[in-house]
């Protein structure tokens, strides 16, 4: 650079010709012309990638396998030896095992860094989901029943999934998540949740949270990462907040008839599938088409589902009763002060003796909770306006 600077000085400041500068510096005329009248002095590095991994396309195959395996659990990923054997047996690779290992050692950190960079750059990366509960009302056996709808949305495509549950406790929350993962056909890479008691025990500074043992076990089994919201910051999961309201307004504004939770879940699943056939609110593409791309980034479901339940104990009182969730149940032929093991599932509980014998099973108390439809007020309105009866939601 000092010599280039000297050539520019002779040309610009001393007004010498190219030939004069060449004679004075002893450089070739073309070299002097290049630096005397040139404008760009950017320093560039050029490398030529050599070897069959680059020139014959085997590197592209390995790159795809590495990206694909990053979505799986570590024990399910291909080893270097397995990648080499697949290249050799399925693609006719003639190189050595060491060549493949050197390429993987060079490319794996680059692919990982590229994925992290793309996640930082996008506000809502594909495969990332948000989840929240919403309060809904249905009609069951001629009475109102308040239920919870667990809604999961994917902001990248605006695809939504929903599952009905009787409560917001840990068993219901985890059972709902499991069913939503099955509806989506995979597990989100990241799941944004608020600080609901079913998953969070205490809140620390920043992203520090103490989670329940059940939620940690569930998270490890299905392999997703958690993104907790800050306290009183519902906007941090605004997509699912809007999806909860949208679900309520479009599926529950006129209370649907509920025969059972499985029947209602099937109906809600079909309605949410129909909803994906509408255009995205700003991308002018069907949500269903965007969801196909979004779905490619999901992690695979584990081979076995995790059973969802908790274990409690209950002692029999002098009236042969045990207390579960604030309600008393009679256990006939039970001894006073006898202790039972209670297996709590999302919809029922089971009583066991200490040696594992089932002595009682019943639906959880909240399964049968309803509230009366105000028929007296409705009939009074109909009496005043009889022509409106046929058009009433209560008809």
Q: SSE order in H/E notation?
A: HHHHHHHEEEHEEEHEHHHEEEEEEH
* Tally of discrete structural domains: 4
* CATH domain topology of the largest domain: Nucleotidyltransferase, domain 5
Based on CA atoms alone, the radius of gyration comes out at: 33 Å
Mean of residue pLDDT? 87
**Count of helical stretches:** 13
Main sheet: which strands, in order across?
Answer: 3-2-1-4-7
Descriptive tags:
395 residues, alpha+beta, Nucleotidyltransferase, domain 5, four-stranded antiparallel sheet, 13 helices, 13 strands
Structural description of this entry:
With 395 residues, this protein is of the alpha+beta class. The protein folds into four domains: 2-37; 52-121; 128-295, Ribonuclease H-like superfamily/Ribonuclease H (Nucleotidyltransferase, domain 5), CATH 3.30.420.10; 310-363, Beta Barrel (OB fold (Dihydrolipoamide Acetyltransferase, E2P)), CATH 2.40.50. It is 39% helix and 20% strand. The protein has 13 helices and 13 strands. It has helices at 2-12, 18-25, 29-37, 52-55, 58-69, 80-91, 97-121, 170-184, 213-222, 238-251, 261-275, 287-295, 375-384; strands spanning 128-140, 143-154, 159-165, 190-193, 200-203, 209-211, 225-228, 310-315, 321-324, 327-330, 339-344, 348-352, 358-363. It has a five-stranded mixed sheet with strand order 3-2-1-4-7. Strands 8-11-12-13 form a four-stranded antiparallel sheet, with no helix packed on it. A hairpin with a 2-residue loop joins β9 and β10 (327-330). α2 crosses α3 (29-37), α5 (58-69) packs across α7 and α6 packs across α7. The protein starts with a helix and ends in an 11-residue tail after the last helix.
């Amino acid at each position: 650079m000092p010599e280039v600077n000297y050539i520019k000085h002779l040309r610009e400041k001393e007004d010498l010709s190219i030939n004069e500068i060449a004679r004075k510096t002893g450089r070739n005329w073309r070299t002097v012309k290049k630096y005397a009248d040139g404008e760009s002095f950017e320093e560039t590095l050029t490398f030529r990638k050599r070897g069959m991994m680059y020139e014959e396309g085997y590197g592209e195959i390995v790159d795809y396998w590495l990206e694909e395996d990053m979505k799986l659990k570590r024990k399910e990923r291909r080893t270097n030896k397995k990648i080499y054997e697949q290249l050799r047996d399925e693609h006719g690779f003639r190189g050595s095992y060491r060549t493949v290992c050197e390429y993987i050692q060079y490319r794996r950190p680059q692919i990982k860094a590229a994925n992290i960079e793309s996640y930082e750059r996008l506000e809502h990366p594909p495969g990332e989901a948000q989840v929240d509960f919403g309060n809904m009302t249905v009609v069951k056996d001629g009475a109102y029943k308040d239920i919870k709808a667990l809604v999961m949305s994917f902001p990248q495509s605006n695809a939504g999934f929903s599952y009905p549950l009787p409560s917001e406790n840990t068993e219901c929350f985890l059972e709902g998540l499991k069913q939503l993962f099955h509806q989506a056909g995979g597990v989100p890479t990241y799941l944004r949740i608020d600080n609901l008691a079913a998953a969070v025990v205490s809140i620390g500074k920043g992203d520090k949270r103490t989670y329940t043992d059940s939620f940690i076990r569930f998270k490890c089994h299905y392999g997703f990462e958690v993104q907790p919201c800050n306290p009183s910051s519902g906007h941090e999961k605004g997509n699912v907040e809007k999806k909860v309201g949208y679900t309520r307004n479009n599926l529950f504004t006129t209370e649907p008839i509920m025969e059972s939770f499985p029947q209602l879940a099937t109906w809600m699943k079909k309605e949410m599938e129909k909803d994906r056939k509408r255009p995205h609110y700003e991308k002018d593409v069907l949500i269903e088409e965007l969801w196909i791309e979004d779905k490619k980034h999901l992690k695979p479901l584990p081979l076995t589902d995790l059973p969802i339940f908790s274990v409690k104990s209950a002692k029999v009182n002098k009236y042969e009763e045990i207390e579960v969730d604030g309600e008393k149940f009679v256990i006939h032929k039970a001894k006073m002060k006898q202790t039972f093991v209670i297996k709590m599932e999302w919809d029922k509980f089971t009583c066991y003796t200490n040696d594992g014998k089932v002595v009682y099973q019943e639906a959880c108390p909240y399964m049968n909770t309803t509230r009366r439809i105000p028929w007296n007020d409705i009939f009074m309105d109909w009496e005043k306006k009889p022509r409106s009866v046929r058009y009433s939601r209560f008809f």
